[in-house]
UniProtKB/TrEMBL annotation:
Gene3D superfamilies: 3.40.50.2020. It holds the Pfam family PRTase_2. GO terms for molecular function: glycosyltransferase activity. Residues 258-382 form the TRSP domain. It comes from the Bacteria. Residues 25-212 form the Orotate phosphoribosyltransferase-like domain. It comes from Romboutsia sedimentorum. This is Phosphoribosyltransferase family protein.
Length: 397
């Protein structure tokens, strides 16, 4: 991949399902000195839109590879942990397709004083603090197996950080690190083998692609942060929809079934029932139009599942904290970019990319927590800058 002023050579060494890597990623540049490049997924529904069915099937594919590698493993009791924010929906999908008595939880950047957190760091991220509110998990005490799920594993340092933390409190026999992309070097594998002996557990990898890459920027990109948009006078139809997600947690009314505080297989079954009941509130009049379902930050899986149930030509992706540099070059993944404040923490900057890529006529924006309508003024103004004619703000509390 060679365009703009950078080059990335990718070498795939193992591809267990014989997939085409070009169907899964493009390379972008981000405004982060810790790590300048970003593998922009075509299938995760985070920065780039995809069909929701394709997004959900990635978790199913990872479980397929996992099952093939673990035919003799009889312990069906454990926990699936995914990493915020990009990996939240992926891990939830893995949990959904995984057989056995597993629970699911994802890390979160949300601060919830009522819950005790297992804290650790994601070292190369733009937002390093993770909280894991583990107190509701039964298998943290009784299960022997933990699956750690993220879209990409580069050094495995984040996974090792959480493994060390868990082993110091609730020792497990086995950890499986699952990802779409695995770039872990032989040198880091050797380190992990030593850590296995030190911590008295096994650490294995499951992935769709294993390999290495060489990334070079020929010259530093001169980048100026985008400014706030001027208020547009364009007409935009704005509609508010309230969904009843049945079970909530805390004063803020977090959705129980999102996985932020842990769910089991019965909770997952209840989530699917709620989605099938509430989907009738999300009506698309013209099934020929391109429709966007937009999640927000960590809140990805539940909107994606609603998108799967909706009738029409539906695409899905989400707002993001990740600051990717945009460019009009059509070979580059991020062509347009808007900046907004987080719906969950006003001081946190969010971005939404490529809103006009698929010529959408209508958008369903999913927000987990109830907001004052003033908090939507900025996102409404963003949509007024596009060709989208109708914005449905879907509040799930």
């Amino acid at each position: 991949m060679n365009y703009l002023n950078f080059k990335c050579d990718i070498n795939i060494e193992d591809n267990p399902l014989n997939l085409n890597i070009d169907d899964y990623l493009q390379v972008g540049i981000r405004n982060n000195p810790k790590r300048r490049f970003l593998f922009v997924s075509k299938v995760l529904g985070k920065h780039l839109a995809c069909k929701p069915k394709i997004m959900d099937e990635i978790g199913e594919s990872i479980v397929e590879v996992y099952n093939t590698k673990n035919l003799g493993f009889k312990n069906n009791k454990g926990i699936v942990i995914s990493f915020a924010e990009t990996g939240t929906a992926l891990g939830h999908s893995v949990f959904n397709y995984l057989d056995g008595d597993y629970e699911f939880i994802h890390t979160t950047r949300e601060k919830v004083d009522e819950y005790k957190s297992l804290e650790f760091l994601e070292e190369h991220s733009h937002a390093t603090d993770h909280n894991l509110y583990f107190e509701e998990l039964e298998n943290i005490n009784y299960g022997d197996h933990i699956l750690l799920v993220d879209d990409e594993i580069t050094t495995a340092n984040t996974c090792i950080n959480i493994i060390r933390k868990i082993q110091s409190i609730y020792p497990k026999k086995k950890y499986t690190i699952c990802s779409i992309l695995n770039w872990v070097s032989n040198e880091n594998i050797d380190k992990i083998k030593k850590i296995e002996k030190e911590l008295k557990c096994s650490i294995e990898f499951v992935y769709l692609f294993k390999g290495n890459f060489d990334f070079n920027i020929s010259e530093e990109i001169q980048y100026k942060e985008i400014e706030d948009l001027k208020i547009s006078q364009k007409k935009l139809c704005v509609n508010y929809i309230n969904l009843d997600m049945k079970d909530y947690i805390g004063d803020k009314r977090y959705i129980k079934y999102s996985g932020r505080f842990g769910i089991n297989k019965n909770d997952q079954a209840n989530l699917i029932k709620v989605i099938k009941r509430e989907k009738n509130k999300l009506e698309v009049k013209n099934k020929e139009d391109n429709i966007l379902v937009l999640g927000s930050e960590e809140f990805m899986y539940v909107p994606m599942m609603f998108a799967k149930e909706m009738e029409g030509n539906i695409y899905y992706h989400s707002t993001s904290r990740s600051p990717i540099i945009e460019n009009k070059n059509q070979n580059y993944p991020i062509n347009t970019k808007f900046k907004l404040n987080s719906f969950y923490n006003e001081e946190t900057v969010n971005y939404v990319y490529n809103l006009e890529k698929n010529h959408y006529k209508e958008c369903f924006l999913f927000v987990e927590l109830k907001q004052d309508k003033k908090n939507y003024e900025k996102i409404i103004n963003i949509f007024k800058q596009t060709n989208i004619e109708k914005l449905n703000i879907v509040v799930c509390s």
